[in-house]
Design a protein that fits this description.
Strand content: 5-15%
Helix content: 25-40%
CATH topology of the domain at 537-669: Immunoglobulin-like
CATH class of the domain at 537-669: Mainly Beta
Distance between the termini: 48 Å
Shape: elongated
CATH superfamily of the domain at 537-669: Golgi alpha-mannosidase II
Bound molecules: calcium ion
Structural class: alpha/beta
Radius of gyration: 29 Å
Length: 672
């Protein structure tokens, strides 16, 4: 029996990485008690659901993405009962709850792996991807060949009728046995089965003496890859899904889901490509679609939503998962929009390039709109998942924004993606404009991938330069505790926080931003509310203007003849802009456009003089002074008017006055 799926397209989601979200019991670690206390806050943002990064028992080699028990809650975070409480309360508030399904790999401390290590005759033997060392494989083949030859020789001797020297035969047999033992014994000295690198640390293979074989780990050594080709493993996955769905969970975000089916030949990758040389053989593998179809059937029984994380996947491949009648996922988390300041991974940093970001945005928007998903017609078009931050990437305001124009750029970035066609995701602290942290030494960082990069690459550079590379690229920046208040422990904990709190919490925190009309927090709220209230922003088609412009990002959403135009400046200087000719021609002479939203305060209708813009060159040079000015502006004029229903109309001919630094504007254009 299939259950009807809820409409995730109208929704937006808030991602919680529990460990750093809110500590409810004072031990310095975020937990489900803290989450429970903050559910009203989450609701107040205007989101419709929560995605929890893994909350299951884990030795934390990759902070929860190495699971040692899929059907329980990490003791640091609470109990199953506490999770049920959170789930029920979230549902009362009208919030859906998604869990992270991490099934490409487990922890090496998962009982399945512990059993699997014990030997080849173990019931869990084939739960993981085990292979003989390469030398052993070759020698075993040779040995086998020589054994066959010897057998043939013995046969010939027997037939020939000559007397057989049994003693020689015995000797030959002894020699063979010795040889076999020798091969087994020196297995450890042999090369791994292929030359793949892991994405987190060193080679993708780890030798296990206990079993005399290597196991595959695409990520950390403590994250052995599951063998999804084993039907029993797939049954385990389905059982995990049912366990949480029966409890009332509404769906899953599925971790590196396009890696779960490997090319069974496990061939060598290109030798000179670091880190991802095996990618072509484990990404979008031969049986992926079939396996996802099996999981899909379980999800559909419950009407659950499935969002797949798919690194290095292009639009065309994505459509094979999220469009068409045999679609197996509802949305896909792509990585293109995370690569606007780097190559393949944040660690290979090259500075922010707006055009690269715009190309990524538009590639996915154009690629997905109008592509039919499922048989139910237009209600099932391929749908985008929109995000600028999550637990795996540094803070976006530090990457694509500008810390000298911290408030403006953080809010502008919100408008740059939330109004695109798709379901927006926010990551905890993003709604506060939290920034990257710069720790003083590599030892203070925790992320396994960052540490490995530090100790592997650019070793000839001075320590400061190598550390700077980590400060720019590390995922740890997304994992500092959420800054709730300017008080001790940033309001995150009453105890000693498990990880460094960004010292800027005294200036950047939720308590402070609640009070300010133009804070990042309140701007996110306005964006999410506007998106939900405008059909055009929900369902309209996407079109980008001026794609080659190096500082301006402009896109429209068009629905039933109405056009909403989103204009974003990525410039620290005033930026002049023009209404695209195709849009201005449509406006009748004298017609007025309506300003639906801006991240700068505004005086009455159309009057753009305010104390902030007058000094816009000087304004925001320093974050503090900018904030103060903006707040005094907004206090004077009660800028909440935007929210209290006062509407701003501007003549079409006059709307293009220069944008202030990192200004974002959302316009409803007059109908033709
Ligand atoms: Ca705690």
């Amino acid at each position: 029996m299939k259950k009807k799926q809820f409409d995730f397209r109208k929704m937006s989601f808030y991602q919680i990485w529990v460990r750093s979200f809110c500590d409810g019991n004072g031990d310095g670690i975020g937990d489900l008690y803290g989450v429970y206390d903050k559910l009203d806050y989450i609701k107040s943002l205007g989101v419709d659901g929560i995605w929890f990064s893994p909350i299951f028992p884990s030795p934390n080699a990759d902070y929860g993405y190495d699971i040692s028990d899929y059907k329980n809650i990490h003791p640091d975070y609470g109990t199953l009962e506490q999770f049920q409480k959170v789930l029920d309360r979230a549902h009362e508030l009208g919030l859906k709850v998604l869990l992270d399904l991490v099934i490409n790999h487990t922890s090496d401390e998962h009982p399945w792996f512990i059993e699997s290590c014990k030997g080849k005759d173990n019931p869990y033997s084939d739960y993981y991807i085990w292979r003989d060392p390469l030398g052993v494989k070759i020698e075993k083949n040779l040995e086998e060949a020589s054994e066959i030859l010897t057998e043939k020789r013995d046969e010939l001797e027997d037939i020939s009728g000559f007397p057989v020297d049994q003693r020689k035969r015995e000797k030959r047999k002894e020699k063979r046995d010795r040889n076999r033992k020798r091969i087994e014994n020196k297995a450890e000295q042999y090369r791994p089965p292929n030359n793949w690198f892991s994405q987190f640390e060193g080679l993708a293979w780890e030798y296990k003496e206990q079993r005399g074989q290597y196991y595959l780990h695409i990520f950390a050594r403590k994250q052995p890859d599951l063998n999804m080709d084993n039907p029993r493993v797939r049954e385990e996955v389905k059982s995990i899904m049912r366990f949480w769905l029966d409890m009332g969970v509404d769906g899953f975000r599925e971790d590196v889901i396009n890696f779960i089916s490997k090319d069974p030949r496990l061939p060598d990758g290109l030798p000179f490509v670091p880190v991802i040389n095996g990618l072509p053989f484990y990404k979008d593998g031969p049986n992926l679609h079939r396996y996802l179809q099996e999981f899909r059937e379980v999800a559909l029984e419950y009407g659950a939503v499935q969002i797949g994380e798919a690194p290095f996947t292009g639009v065309k491949k994505a459509l094979s998962y999220i469009a068409g009648k045999d679609r197996v996922l509802d949305m896909l988390i792509q990585f293109d929009t995370m690569m606007a300041d780097c190559f393949m991974t944040e660690y290979v940093y090259h500075g922010f390039r707006l055009r690269k970001l715009k190309r990524a945005f538009s590639r996915w928007e154009y690629g997905l709109q109008g592509k039919r998903a499922g048989r139910e017609g237009t209600s099932c078009m391929a749908w985008n998942a929109l995000y600028l931050e999550n637990h795996d990437h540094p803070r976006v305001v530090s990457r694509y924004g500008n810390l000298h124009f911290w408030r403006a750029s953080a809010t502008m970035l919100a408008a740059s993606y939330i109004f695109q066609r798709g379901t927006p995701f926010l990551y905890q602290g993003q709604e506060l404009g939290m920034t990257n942290i710069a720790l003083d030494s590599i030892d203070q960082y925790l992320d396994v991938a960052s540490k490995n990069a530090y100790h592997t690459f650019h070793l000839r550079e001075p320590v400061e330069k190598r550390l700077r590379r980590i400060q720019i690229s590390t995922r740890d920046s997304a994992r500092t505790p959420v800054q709730w208040s300017p008080g001790s422990g940033a309001g995150f904990t009453s105890g000693t926080p498990w990880f460094a709190i960004n010292p800027n919490y005294v200036r950047i925190n939720a308590q402070d931003q609640e009070k300010k009309a133009y804070s990042v927090l309140n701007f996110y709220r306005r964006c999410l509310a506007l998106r939900k209230s405008e059909e055009t922003l929900l369902w309209g088609t996407y079109r980008e203007y001026y794609p080659a412009h190096p500082k301006l990002f402009m896109y429209e959403r068009r629905y039933k003849g109405e056009v909403i135009l989103v204009v974003c400046s990525f410039s620290k200087k005033p930026l002049s802009w023009k209404i695209p000719r195709s849009l201005s021609r449509k406006a009748a002479a004298g017609a007025e456009a309506e300003l639906l939203l801006s991240n700068y305060p505004r005086t009455g209708s159309g009057d753009r003089k305010d104390s902030c813009s007058k000094k816009r060159g000087a304004c925001s040079k320093k974050m503090d002074s900018c904030l103060k000015k903006i707040d005094s502006c907004s206090k004077k004029r009660d800028s909440r008017s935007n929210e209290s229903g006062k509407r701003h109309f501007v003549k079409m001919t006059e709307i293009c006055s220069p944008l202030r630094p990192y200004e974002a504007q959302v316009w409803r254009l007059p109908a033709r």
